[in-house]
Design brief:
It is built from 14 helices and 8 strands. With 311 residues, it is an alpha/beta fold. The chain folds into 3 domains: 3-91, Orthogonal Bundle (Multidrug-efflux Transporter Regulator, Chain: A, Domain 2), CATH 1.10.1660.10; 100-177, Methyltransferase, Methionine Synthase (B12-binding Domains), Chain A, domain 1 (Orthogonal Bundle), CATH 1.10.1240; 184-302, Cobalamin-binding domain (Rossmann fold), CATH 3.40.50.280. A 5-stranded parallel sheet has the order 5-4-6-7-8, sandwiched between helices. Strands 1-3-2 form a 3-stranded antiparallel sheet. Helix 13 (250-263) links the parallel strand 6 (239-243) and strand 7. The longest helix is centred in the middle third of the chain and has 21 residues, at 132-152. It is flat, with a radius of gyration of 21 Å. The protein starts with a helix and ends in a 9-residue tail after the last helix.
Length: 311
């Protein structure tokens, strides 16, 4: 197909491609940039448009990734060869979890087996299969609760929890980096305050924000209020979000949060989420993010009127 013919045939915007393939626009752009899986045409305004052949090829790549093949290993195959490989995988009946609960169960088994490489592979497969929002809401967030329950019940040890945490953090770090946002997008800072060493909740919130088109400034865990406030000023962020998982020292936690509220610019919204946030009484000038859906709603509330998702 000539360039002119391809341009004429390219009639599907990225949101339609995402709906038909199950890929999020951000993962799709990452695949294009890293692997050159397809080459969409662009309108005069820079919007991507895809052909039916592009959608077919992307659908095949999704199916290949769902049975455990890395995208990089099959990205350069001709579409006909890729289709043959996918059909061969289907004929051989390779296991492919299709529901969030299936992905979550397989991931928890990898945690119990202390197999962090397998855990990360399963989580990446779930991410590509389900898309970022469903993956974060229905697989990763409840999986972390499952891991905590398993540890408290004595069914896994601290070494299992640490290995799983490292795998999850590595995956979330990759996801946050891979999610493209517009250069003029609003920004949100995520961290955990002093005494809060579990960072996965804040990283999940950062990934959810990045997927919704925000620049996510991830600082890390167990940070003093003064340093969080300094970073917020230096980055000029629009919103600050903190994750709280333990409330052993409620007085110290309240003191840190109130100090941060006083030190932050008065017009910078501050929200606290996580398993421990619900036991804090309402503090002046500090909102609560009840869950990921509520967090997304908060970000939409504070987004500038001009902010739209990347095309």
């Amino acid at each position: 197909m000539s360039d002119n013919q391809k341009a004429a045939a390219a009639r599907h915007p990225i949101r339609v491609v995402a709906e038909r393939t199950g890929l999020s626009p951000h993962v799709l752009r990452a695949w294009e940039r890293r692997y050159g899986v397809v080459a969409p045409t662009r309108s005069d305004g820079g919007q991507r448009f895809y052909t039916d052949d592009d959608i077919h090829r992307l659908s095949l790549l999704v199916k290949a990734s769902q049975v455990g093949r890395s995208v990089g290993s099959v990205a350069l195959l001709p579409t006909s060869e890729l289709a043959r490989l996918v059909a061969q995988d289907a004929d051989q009946g390779q296991a492919r979890p299709s529901q969030s609960s299936d992905h979550r169960a397989m991931a928890l088994k990898a945690v119990r087996d202390m197999a962090p490489d397998r855990l990360q592979s399963l989580l990446r497969r779930a991410l590509l299969s389900l898309g970022t929002p469903v993956f974060l809401d229905q697989v990763l967030s409840p999986l972390l609760v499952d891991i905590g329950s398993e540890w408290h019940a004595g069914r896994i040890g601290i070494v299992h929890e640490h290995a799983a945490s490292a795998a999850v953090q590595q995956l979330l770090g990759w996801l946050i980096r891979e999610l493209d946002v517009l250069t003029d997008a609003p920004s949100v800072l995520l961290a955990t305050p002093s005494g809060q060493r579990h960072s996965q909740g804040a990283m999940i919130a950062a990934a959810a924000a990045a997927h919704d088109g925000w620049h996510a400034v991830w600082l890390g865990a167990d940070l003093p209020a003064t340093q969080i406030a300094t970073a917020a000023r230096e980055h000029g962020v629009d919103v600050v979000g903190l994750s709280v998982t333990t409330t052993d020292d409620l007085d110290g936690l309240r003191s840190e949060l109130l100090e941060l509220r006083v030190t932050l610019a008065p017009n910078t919204p501050l929200y606290v989420g996580g398993l421990g946030a619900g036991v804090l009484e309402r503090l002046d000038g500090i909102g609560e993010a009840r869950d990921l859906a509520h967090w997304r709603s908060i970000l939409r509330t504070h987004a500038p009127a001009s902010h739209t998702a990347a095309a």
